[in-house]
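Now for one specimen:
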Amino acid sequence: MMVSIMTELSTANSFVVRVYRVDTEDPHKLVGQLETLDGSGERQPFTDLGELATLLNRGAGKRRGRGKGAKA
């Protein structure tokens, strides 16, 4: 008989991304806010696509228990 133990459950994360402004000369520069839909009500600002990507990855890492050293 084979027994399997699941140590980590992978689930989808949900976010609301609000974009308020985009620089017409450099579309990578934008201003917005990321809201994590995990019940925490946490909202984080971003000012470019790199920051948005970092926040999304950090939010996904928190869900899997890897966001321990992340800034709030």
